[in-house]
């Protein structure tokens, strides 16, 4: 399929899917960028920053696909939407911990490792499916993004496994982080209200198929590191795909657009 | 034990190949607790711009190098008998037989002419 | 050196002579080579301060990373701040190898920073309240850094020279990133131009301070002179400052911006820029941790280091298993 051959209903579903993909990467990249200069180790700071940049670059690719579909300029889409227009999963907008990136950031590295690892596993599965998307521009974008995804997955998997199998303190912190992420990670695994149209048009595999792949992988990894599988991940605070969000997203979008919004017409 | 003495800050030397065909070259060092961590950090600390075909990380304590004193052993006198410059007179010899002396290209290419 | 005689058998004086001969012949000193204690200490002082300044220098610009006004700008400034951390990494590694024989490692560098024993560069103690500051830092602060770093590209200490070579290559991107930001503002709305001019006003004195005082009498130390003798550096503070003026003042003027010093002019007779000198007592106050952002930035670094101690402890223990 191309832009010209999309039926209106398909186009609507495609746009929804693209917002999910773009906003997921955009918000998690933003949370990653807040860690700049604050990671547990200088070498890791540099490595982590590359991943945040890659993810923001991926969001940019998706926003550009939305621009082509008539949603407005990529920068405008990224910076000027109100929070209820965002389609990211709630767990990805969550703050890194108490404090802000400017003042008293008591950020939680265990939460960051768990959230990023679980997301990287899902993103890998999602991209693997998107490579065969019926919408050719999306398939092409997915193939490009996949080249960088291998590193992200490897990076977070090493962090996850090492911290899970080190000291008692680390295991405790990691287990608490898994429980925290689990409460809302279901939001990442869903395709939202346009699910049926998205799947019918073959833009991506059925969410149940991808969910199963994710569950299988995570269950195996948890077993490997001696942790128990807590059952299906949940969506306790609602479904971000429906535009339901928390205060954390409001804070995120106002920071992200602080300068852009003062002068979107001229540019910076 | 505090962080000065614990085993987090190990020095790893990083080597890389630019392309499949190039040899490994040394490129800086980093601190990491183990080799897996050293690898994932090496990639972005040293190769976030240039392309790279392969990476090695080696714990520094596993490298046996030379100290300043030992480096004296690297010095030596000229040994013309094992270098081509010791065989310059062959050119004239072959000329006596109406033959050109083989160049390096001839010898390695296994061909007796330039055509 | 006497033929056949081991280097270790030389007297201290002979070693020193041999060392100075090597330096004067343009040879590079490597970490395991013999070096006078004074040379080692000078290098540690210079390079650990340089390295930690890169790490602390990430913080003012980092304030603008999420706020950068477009996706492209967000990516570019993230890459730039990442490079600063990367430069810190390269430099701290050089310093750490020099400190190893003294039984010190990165942890000690961090502790020295937190206790105020290890100072960082004056510019990174300052406020960066607007996006214009992100532009001025990348354009002029990095511009100043390029000048002082490229002077040391031929430093007598091999690992420092090699690290600087890589750093300078990346600084070219930083300079262009800065030019791109400030040109967009200079060509933008009156408000944007005004924001840029404000930032220049705010940063000018810090830029004068960047290169350090003219001579030892302002600060009472002579490290710069010593470093010239050891061929660690090749130019004086004032040489570098004049170079900076020559390179940047015409550009600042060409954009119609005003330098907040009405005495500044190029003197044809002396071929030198005449300018209003910085307040060096203020400089001393700033680098001693009393600048407007000194404690806040130190707190960010201290907090993140302490909060994440469990992570390093976990991996250290893991390694031991």
CATH architecture of chain C: Up-down Bundle
So what's the oligomer here?
heterotrimer
Overall shape of chain B: elongated
Give me the secondary-structure category of chain C: mainly alpha
Which two chains touch over the largest interface? A-C, 51 and 50 residues
User: Could you please say which CATH topology of the domain at 10-61 in chain B applies here?
Assistant: Ubiquitin-like (UB roll)
How can the largest sheet of chain B be summarized? 3 strands, antiparallel
Question: Per the principal axes of the C-alpha atoms, what is the gross shape of chain C?
Answer: globular
Organism (chain B): Fictibacillus norfolkensis
Protein name (chain B): 1,2-phenylacetyl-CoA epoxidase subunit B
InterPro entries (chain B): PaaB, PaaB_sf
Pfam families (chain B): PaaB
Task: Give an overview in words.
Chain A contains 10 helices and no strands. The two termini of chain A are 36 Å apart. Chain A has helices spanning 8-34, 42-71, 74-80, 90-93, 109-130, 136-164, 168-185, 195-200, 207-224, 247-257. Chain B is of the alpha+beta class and 115 residues long. In chain B, a hairpin with a 7-residue loop joins strand 1 (10-17) and strand 2. The longest helix of chain B has 12 residues, at 35-46. Chain B starts with 9 loop residues before the first strand and ends in a 6-residue tail after the last helix. Chain C is mainly alpha-helical and 321 residues long. Helix content of chain C is 67%, strand content 2%. Chain C has a two-stranded antiparallel sheet with strand order 1-2. Chain C is globular, with a radius of gyration of 21 Å. Classes of the chains: A mainly alpha (268), B alpha+beta (115), C mainly alpha (321). The interface between A and C is large, with 51 and 50 residues.
């Amino acid at each position: 399929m191309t832009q010209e051959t999309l039926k209106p209903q398909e186009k609507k579903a495609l746009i929804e899917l693209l917002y999910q993909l773009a906003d997921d990467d955009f918000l998690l990249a933003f949370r990653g960028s807040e860690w700049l200069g604050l990671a547990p180790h200088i070498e890791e700071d540099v490595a982590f920053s590359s991943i945040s940049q890659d993810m923001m670059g991926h969001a940019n690719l998706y926003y550009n696909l939305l621009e082509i579909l008539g949603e407005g300029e990529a920068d405008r889409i990224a910076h000027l939407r109100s929070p209820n227009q965002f389609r990211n999963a709630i767990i990805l907008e969550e703050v890194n911990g108490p404090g802000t990136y400017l003042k008293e950031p008591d950020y939680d590295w265990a939460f960051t490792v768990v959230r990023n690892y679980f997301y990287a596993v899902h993103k890998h599965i999602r991209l693997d499916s998107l490579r065969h998307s019926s919408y050719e521009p999306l398939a092409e974008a997915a193939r490009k993004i996949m080249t960088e995804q291998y590193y992200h997955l490897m990076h977070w998997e090493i962090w996850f496994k090492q911290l899970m199998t080190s000291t008692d303190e680390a295991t405790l912190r990691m287990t608490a982080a898994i429980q925290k992420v689990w409460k809302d990670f279901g939001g990442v695994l869903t395709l939202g209200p346009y699910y049926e149209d998205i799947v019918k048009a073959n833009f991506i595999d059925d969410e149940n198929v991808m969910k199963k792949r994710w569950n299988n992988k995570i269950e195996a990894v948890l077993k490997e590191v001696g942790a128990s599988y807590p059952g299906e991940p949940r969506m306790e605070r609602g479904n971000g795909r429906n535009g339901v969000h928390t205060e954390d997203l409001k804070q995120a979008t106002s920071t992200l657009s602080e300068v852009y919004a003062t002068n979107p017409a001229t540019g910076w | 034990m505090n962080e000065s003495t614990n085993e987090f800050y190990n020095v790893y030397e990083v080597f890389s190949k630019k392309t499949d065909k190039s040899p490994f070259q040394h490129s800086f060092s980093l601190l990491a607790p183990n080799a897996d961590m050293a690898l994932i950090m090496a990639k972005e600390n040293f190769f976030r711009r240039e392309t790279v075909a392969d990476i090695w990380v080696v714990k520094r304590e596993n490298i046996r190098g030379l100290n300043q004193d030992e480096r004296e052993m690297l010095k030596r006198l000229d040994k013309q008998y094992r270098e081509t410059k010791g065989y310059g007179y062959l050119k004239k010899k072959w000329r006596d037989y109406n033959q050109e002396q083989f160049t390096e290209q001839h010898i390695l290419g296994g061909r007796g002419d330039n055509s | 050196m006497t033929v056949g005689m081991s280097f270790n058998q030389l007297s201290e004086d002979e070693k020193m002579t041999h060392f100075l001969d090597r330096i004067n012949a343009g040879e590079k000193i490597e970490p395991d080579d013999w070096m006078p204690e004074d040379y080692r200490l000078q290098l540690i002082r210079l390079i650990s301060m340089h390295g930690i300044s890169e790490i602390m220098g990430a913080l003012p610009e980092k304030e603008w990373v999420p706020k950068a006004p477009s996706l492209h700008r967000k990516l570019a400034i993230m890459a730039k701040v990442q490079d600063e951390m990367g430069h810190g990494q390269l430099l701290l590694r050089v310093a750490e190898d020099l400190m190893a024989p003294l039984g010190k490692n990165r942890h000690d560098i961090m502790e020295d920073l937190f206790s105020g024993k290890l100072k960082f560069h004056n510019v990174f103690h300052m406020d960066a309240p607007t996006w214009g500051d992100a532009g001025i830092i990348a354009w002029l602060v990095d511009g100043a850094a390029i000048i002082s770093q490229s002077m040391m590209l031929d430093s007598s200490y091999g690992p420092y020279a090699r690290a600087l070579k890589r750093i300078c290559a990346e600084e070219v991107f930083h300079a262009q990133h800065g030019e791109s930001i400030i040109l967009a503002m200079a060509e933008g709305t009156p408000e944007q131009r005004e924001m840029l001019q404000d930032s220049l006003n705010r940063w000018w004195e810090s830029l004068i301070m960047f290169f350090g005082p003219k001579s030892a009498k302002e600060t009472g130390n002579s490290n710069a002179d010593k470093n010239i003798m050891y061929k660690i550096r090749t130019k004086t503070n004032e040489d570098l400052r004049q170079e900076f003026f020559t390179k940047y003042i015409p550009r600042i003027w060409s954009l119609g911006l005003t330098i907040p010093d009405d005495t500044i002019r190029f003197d044809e007779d002396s071929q030198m820029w005449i300018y209003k000198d910085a307040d060096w007592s203020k400089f001393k106050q700033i680098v001693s941790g009393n600048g407007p952002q000194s404690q806040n930035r130190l707190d960010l670094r201290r907090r993140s280091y302490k909060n994440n101690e469990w992570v390093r402890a976990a991996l250290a223990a893991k390694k031991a298993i």
